[in-house]
């Protein structure tokens, strides 16, 4: 299993930037996909950005051009750079790790979440 700890959330003004970090308890080299999800008040949790072990990325339409997901395998860390933040980006952001273990057992782990609040 892998433990995930997010950090970097906070309160920012519209148009500002934040960088979220997700520190994993073990190497993320073999994890098939790591990503960021968010859940705003009254809404379902949604995928924001995903990065695979091969480096492919995918973004929600609402954040394309503003958010960038990246990974540093040496530091066992995934980042989400958020620029041009909007009030509608306000949500709890969760880090996710998904893959298949050496014993062919699928897994999907989540961090505890970090609050991002964008004021207008």
Q: Keywords, please?
A:
120 residues; mainly beta; seven-stranded mixed beta sheet; four-stranded antiparallel beta sheet; 0% helix; elongated
Oligomer: single chain
The N- to C-terminal Cα distance equals 40 Å
Report the count of strand segments: 11
Uncertain stretches? none
Element pattern in H and E: EEEEEEEEEEE
Mean pLDDT: 95
Strand content: over 45%
Largest sheet: 7 strands, mixed
Number of helices: 0
What would you call the structural class?
Answer: mainly beta
Radius of gyration: 14 Å
Mass-distribution shape: elongated
Binned, the helix content reads under 10%
Question: How would you describe what is shown here?
Answer:
With 120 residues, this protein is mostly beta strands. 0% of the residues lie in helices and 54% in strands. It has no helices and eleven strands. It has strands at 4-7, 10-13, 18-24, 33-39, 46-52, 57-59, 67-72, 77-82, 91-100, 106-110, 114-119. The strands form two sheets. Strands 2, 4, 5, 6, 9, 10 and 11 form a seven-stranded mixed β-sheet that branches. Strand 9 and strand 10 (106-110) form a beta hairpin. It is elongated, with a radius of gyration of 14 Å. The termini are far apart.
Summarize it.
The chain is mostly beta strands and 120 residues long. It contains no helices and eleven strands.
List the helices and strands and how they pair.
Elements: E1 4-7, E2 10-13, E3 18-24, E4 33-39, E5 46-52, E6 57-59, E7 67-72, E8 77-82, E9 91-100, E10 106-110, E11 114-119
Parallel strand pairs: 2-11
Antiparallel strand pairs: 1-3, 3-8, 4-5, 4-9, 5-6, 7-8, 9-10, 9-11
């Amino acid at each position: 299993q892998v433990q995930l700890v997010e950090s970097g959330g906070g309160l920012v003004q519209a148009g500002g930037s934040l960088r979220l970090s997700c520190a994993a308890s073990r190497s993320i080299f073999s994890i098939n996909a790591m990503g960021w999800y968010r859940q705003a008040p009254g809404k379902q949790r949604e995928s924001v950005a995903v990065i695979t072990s091969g480096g492919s990325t995918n973004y929600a339409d609402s954040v394309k051009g503003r958010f960038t997901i990246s990974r540093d395998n040496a530091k066992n860390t995934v980042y989400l750079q958020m620029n041009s933040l909007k009030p509608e980006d306000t949500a709890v952001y969760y880090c996710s790790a998904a893959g298949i273990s050496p014993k062919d057992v699928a897994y999907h782990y989540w961090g505890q979440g970090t609050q991002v609040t964008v004021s207008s």
